[in-house]
Amino acid sequence: MESPLTYLLYFLLIITGLIVVFYPNGGIYWRLKNSFKNDSKTLIEDILKKLYHAEDGGNSLSTNDIISSTNIRPKIIIEIIAQMKANELINFNNGNIKLTENGMDYALKIIRVHRLWEKYLSEKTGFDKKDWHDIAEKMEHKLDSQQTKELANDLGNPRFDPHGDPIPTEFGEIESIQGEPLPVFKEGTIGRIVHIEDEPDIIYKQILAEDLHIGSHVHIVENNEKRIVFHSEGEEYILAPIVANNITILQLLKEEISEENTFRLSNLKENEQAKIIGISNECRGEIRRRLLDLGFVLNTKIELDLISPMNNPRSYLVRDTAIAIRNEQAKYILIEKIKNDANSN
Amino acid sequence: MMQTVTKSACESCEHSNASGLKKLGINIDNSDFVVALAGNPNTGKSTVFNALTGLRQHTGNWPGKTVTRAEGGYSFGDKKYKLVDLPGTYSLLSTSQDEEVARNFILFGKPDVTVIVVDASRLERNLNLVLQILEITDKAVLCLNLMDEAKRMEIEIDDRTLARDLGIPVIPTSARSKEGIQQLISTIHQVATGEIICKPHRIKNVPKQINNAIEKLCTEIEKEYPNIPNSRWIALRLLDGDERIIEAVKTGEFITE
Amino acid sequence: MKNNKILNISNDLRWQIGDGFHDKLTEGIYSDAAQIAQNSVFKKGQTKRFRFDRSLDKIVTSKIWGFPIMILILSVVLWLTIIGANYPSGLLSELLLDTIQPWLKETSLSIGFPIWLAGFLFDGVYLALAWVIAVMLPPMAIFFPLFTLLEDFGYLPRAAFNLDNLFKKAGAHGKQALTMSMGFGCNAAGVVATRIIDSPRERLIAIITNNFSLCNGRWPTQILIASIFIGALAPQSLSGALSTLSVISIALLGVFFTFVVSYFLSKTVLKGEVSSFTLELPPYRPPIFWKTIYTSLIDRTLIVLWRACVFAAPAGAVIWLISNVTFGDTTIAHWLIENLNGFGFILGLNGVILVAYIVAIPANEIVIPTILMLTVMSVSISGVGEGNGVMFELDSVSATGEILKAGGWTLLTAVNLMVFSLLHNPCSTTIYTIYKETKSIKWTVIASVLPLIMGFVVCFVVAQVWRILL
Questions:
Q1: Which of B95, B122, B128 lies at the smallest CB-CB distance from A320?
Q2: Quick check: B93 and C41 CB within 8 A?
Q3: pLDDT, position B56
Q4: What's the confidence (pLDDT) of residue A286?
Q5: Contact at CB, A319 and B241, closer than 8 angstroms
Q6: How confident is the model at residue B22, as a pLDDT?
């Protein structure tokens, strides 16, 4: 028999080994798995996407731009670009790379899969918003056209992905996003959030932390170089311009502007009465359906019923029934508060 | 047209859909009619089930208690009835397991009568499910349960107006004290044998754009399957992307005759 | 092919309508419902929730009283179960084990059964069955009706409402509090009860972690071992309190693991599963007392007992066989014990315990009788026990202690047995139930193996640290 200390050491050694190999994302196992993925098909597709986004924004990229935007060895990138040229996906124009028609079609196909997959993740799975992009980034290289078609049919041929980006059709047609970045608008503008950009990751996470929703109405009250302040759904938001730049706003027409009396259900206090005016577009899939089935529908009267000892969940009185939902869901339900004096009748 | 459908169902008596029911695991050898019991959770559905069958099924005061089906039987006159208790659900439009069990049974099992149990004190909320079921089946009875509770809360219900609006018989009951159960039993019998013919309410308040789509699809379905009674429901489900129904359309499953 | 036309049109229309179909349809149905209700419903009284309901709810979900009331109710239920089951259990075991079993065996021998057959049938199969019934039936017949009364009254959804925030932090559902409590009665019943959780991810979490609720079959083991080894550490007057405390700590350790494992599962393997939370708080309704008692006996107690019996009978046969069938000059049991002793020692257990847990997969109730029988057999204590393969228990706690100490048990063995009794694979009834509920081999395997690995790891670490320090 060995001494207990030796056993313990062996044990620690095994545990450390397992952690080193399997630690999520950083582990050896995952790195090996990922390194195999960097085959030429994936690289080509990634570069096509970069080119597409650049051209879509009116810019163009050179080989050096592409090299500096990835952490893959320059030699490989140069080889890949040569290969792309040979396959007539790209052309050179004064040192800048241009997509050919084939290249454009190919890029749109990849973008279609990416956005469809994000839509799928948002509707049919429980993955967190911040994980969608990374998962879709892997899936976009995997689906063939038949699978993509089936996926699109299953999802009801959606037109927009959960970030508000248009999904290219099977034939490569793509709608353009209307609206402008938030900082463009003057103080006093009332608009609707139509798009939230999910790249770069750092800024996207900041926007997620602010808990802004696509489809929400915003009212800009301050806009200068330092900060942008706006109201939305009864809350006040203060963003740095660089963050606000990734939020696209469509200015509302006069007749679309309603009174500023929109709140989130999570905001409802005891003894207040309210009427439901909708469920935010950010609430999707199974949970949205369930809320609707339970009677959280347009024009339904609602009251706060009970607050659990730890403040969350809370139960609401909807159509004569006490239904408890978590605050995380309540914030997706938009209400209009009814003035208390109307209460007496 | 409804008249003929009802008649043909009863001429071949008693089972219009023996094979569909068998597929769902219902043994119908010893019964003349199959009756499904549907309703929201917490409406005393299991109590109604027990009052009808005498079987002691557990009745929890819990939303969504019976996930699998419970079955029982009773006789009335010389007919034997098989009663199937479906999971309590708020709706048939979602994809949760219990809703699928209930929905599949009514749609594919084609019970001779569907009894919809509702909480009389919270009728409006319960009607959501009732209206959905009436899109699927013509032969239904509304069991207006928990009348005692409604009375205590000083809620009055005009069951004749309700019956007229819904187009199906409405029976007020208090299943805990077995009030109204006899009447429920005889009404089930009348609907099952075709003595009462229902003209169920169809959902009206649908936006025009959607209604047009529904009608377009409906016509298409009816063109392929002229005898289908619930083409509108199937159209609704297709437009909602219900995978089970899409599958059924592919295989032609819902047309068993 | 013609059907594809329908589908193509439908796909086309779906693209035209866009996202809001379900919303608009639901709104349409509800506004129809409102119209119809308006025609036929007349409300005279206040439409608010019934006064009594609301004031009761204000108390049971209040910041001050919510938790104390819950803990009080759970403790009363568990206390009534453990105390109340003692007497009927004793009676049953006297009847089934001490009276009927010897009679069966003698009668069968006197009418000419061969010894091996009588042994196999009555020392093996019958004894295991009788044991399970005697130990399992009374606590379940008390626990389940009590639980069902609370359920019928409508209290349980309020408990889920109160606790949801805690469970949410572990990625789980508030209703898991109830399936967990149900697990204190029986894990198989707890797993069935997870049906009340309508969100797929949270339901799987509740199923997999239910085993960490110390079930009725394990309480007696905990209490016995604690009073022999841990109670003895304190002076006479305090020994009862100390052993009770140690059993409660094990149960709380189970709750702790429930949260830890729930958190771990929701962050790893179950990450992408759909998750949602809604909970209706139904009106309170007075339960129909006798009917509730009756139906819960039929619905839960007897069904669970029946399943347990189905699994216990073959286990009894196996226990008898491995102790009586010999290869060369040792029995299978001996051979297994010898070979597992080394591994057992590293875990701070011993071969007997491991063999007992292998053959007693069907029911935790027979672990202690099997351990006693195997211990007596392997260290050949004469004058105690009923012979090879015949499980037994002693009336006197101290005599049981003597046997175990003769089998080489130390305080460490006892502590680790208590830990291992909490953290090991679920009994086969529960495993079978998990499979029936999930219909997935993958989740069944995870639910079965995960706690076992955890048990090995925890026992191992405790044993090594213990040996280094003491």
A1: B122
A2: no
A3: 58
A4: 82
A5: no
A6: 63
pLDDT at A190: 87
| Residue showing tokens 């000892």 | A309
Mean pLDDT across B8-31: 55
What tokens were used for C203?
Answer: 């339901």
Mutual angle of helices C176-185 and C66-93, in 10-degree steps: 20
For domain A28-99, give its CATH number from 2.40.50, 1.10.10, 1.20.120, 3.30.450: 1.10.10
The answer for B 58-117 residues in CB contact with C (under 8 A) is: 58-65, 67, 91, 93, 96-98
CA distances from B231 to A39, A89, B249, C31, C33 (A): 50, 49, 11, 22, 22
* Mean pLDDT calculated for residue range C443-465: 94
The whole-angstrom separation of Cα A181 and Cα A193 is 10
CATH fold of A262-344: SH3 type barrels. (2.30.30)
Span C267-305, pLDDT tens digits: 888 887 777 788 889 888 888 788 778 877 777 788 778
CA distances in angstroms from C165 to A275, A286, A309, B133, C159, listed in the order given: 26, 21, 9, 36, 11
pLDDT in tens, C368-398: 888 988 888 887 776 667 677 777 877 778 8
| Minimal C-alpha gap between C157 and chain A (Å) | 10
Record: contact C10-B157, CB cut-off 8 A: no
Is the ipTM above a cut-off of 0.95? no
CATH 2.30.30.90 fits domain A180-256:
yes
Q: Check whether B256 has a pLDDT greater than 60.
A: no
The span from the CA of C239 to the CA of C200, in Å, is: 45
Instruction: Find where tokens 């408890």 sit.
Output: A324
What band does B66 get if pLDDT is binned at 50, 70 and 90?
very low
Which residue did the predictor score with more confidence, C349 or C393?
C349
> Residue C348 — pLDDT band, cuts 50, 70, 90?
very high
Token pair, residue A293, equals: 């089935």
DSSP H helical segments within A23-139, as ranges? Answer: 28-37, 40-56, 63-69, 74-86, 101-124, 129-139
Residue ranges in C194-302 assigned as alpha helix (H): 200-209, 219-225, 236-267, 289-296
Q: How far apart are CA A206 and CA A202, in angstroms?
A: 7
Give the contacts of C440 (CB within 8 A, at least 6 positions apart): none
DSSP secondary structure, C382-432, as one string:
SSSSSSTT-----S-HHHHHHHHHHTT--HHHHHHHHHHHHSSPPPHHHHH
- State which residue of chain B sits closest to A156, comparing Cα positions: B241
The per-residue pLDDT for B24 is 62
Q: What is the per-residue pLDDT for A229?
A: 92
pLDDT at C412: 94
Subunits with 3+ Cβ pairs within 8 Å of C are A, B
Pick from B94, B125, B241: which is nearest to A321 by CB? B125
Place of tokens 């002693």: C394
CATH topology match: A28-99 vs A262-344: no
Distance CA B74, CA C435 (A): 33
Q: Are B48 and B175 in contact (CB under 8 A)?
A: yes
pLDDT tens for B188-199 read 999 999 999 889
* Secondary structure class of A330 (helix, strand, coil): helix
- Which residue would you say has higher pLDDT here, C212 or B61? C212
| Calpha distance B225→B228 (Å, rounded) | 6
Residue C420 CA to chain centroid, in angstroms? Answer: 14
pLDDT at B62: 45
Rg from Cα positions in chain B: 17
- Residue spans per domain, chain A: 28-99, 180-256, 262-344
Partner chains of B (3+ C-beta pairs under 8 Å): A, C
CA angle, A160 then A165 then A168, to 5°: 65
